[in-house]
Predict the 3D structure of the following.
Amino acid sequence: MSFRIEDKLFIKPENILQFKNFLINKSAKKLYDNRIIRSLYFDNINLSMYTDSVEGSVPRKKIRIRHYPNSNDNNFYLEIKTSSVEGRYKTRKIINKKDYELYKKIGIFDPDYGTCLPNFYVSYKREYAKIEDVRISIDEAISYENFLSNSFFLDDKLIVELKTSINKNLDDFIKDFPFQKIRFSKYCFAVENSN
């Protein structure tokens, strides 16, 4: 388990070219080809993961199954993101399509949250870059779909995520990216804006 620092930046859609030029000037390297990400989030009937996230409680978790449609990667990944006093980390396990379908039917049992049922799909296009030891992702064309009602809505925000080792000097990290930091969770946004 390796802890990491994560930050999110608010970049207005009209400023994305300016941000990409900033990355070029910082000699950012492209990590992967752009790809579509589709995640199915799970939560218990009390929405405890949502509540813990909004309140900033630690420890807290998010559970999702992620896959990459329209890519050569046909795997499904069961991911558990944990925020603890020590930092944040993610566990990831490959599951097959049969397990994915089963989890959609019966949910996922978590020792802290109990039975967690599928709640929201979140899909978006992601672009990847890296500057030294900082990984940067730019998410756009974000869409949300309620698992039960199939209600669907789009989000015109651009979300930039920065991830680096817990050992990085936080002051340097903030100085290197002079943009507005935000607290933002796609899952929480889905819960708050669904019908």
